[in-house]
TrEMBL record:
<comment type="similarity">
    <text>Belongs to the UPF0357 family.</text>
</comment>
<keyword id="KW-0732">Signal</keyword>
<dbReference type="InterPro" id="IPR018559">
    <property type="entry name" value="DUF2015"/>
</dbReference>
<protein>
    <submittedName>
        <fullName>Uncharacterized protein</fullName>
    </submittedName>
</protein>
<dbReference type="Pfam" id="PF09435">
    <property type="entry name" value="DUF2015"/>
</dbReference>
Amino acid sequence: MFDLLMWCVIIFGIGAVLYYKRFAILARLPPTVVMKLPSSWFAPEYTLLPNTFQEQAEQGYSTSAFDLAGNVSDDARVGLDEEQLQEIREIMRRKRVNFDEARLIRQKMEMRRHGIDPDTGLPIDSKAITRL
């Protein structure tokens, strides 16, 4: 009985040390291994999302293909949609792509979610009528 209790304490202790040192361990792993791990293994990085178009452009959420400054000079909205911006930011982090590629990936995901083939723009549903 004492041996079983001792092994439980040892395993619990090792688990606790690994849990508290997980960030130091993950920092030493190659990026290819870290990218395959679920994002739930990492602490949620709390970062305040930019609120205005100006802040979003300064933080890299504007490119020549998606020019915030040129397109929203007289727009009454405060900034880009926070939920969509968070999704794009997560795609950028997870897939290590730039802002334009992350926007394209998100747009294709949205098209698939709505039943549209992202490559052709046609409905995925075989029963849909696309021409008469």
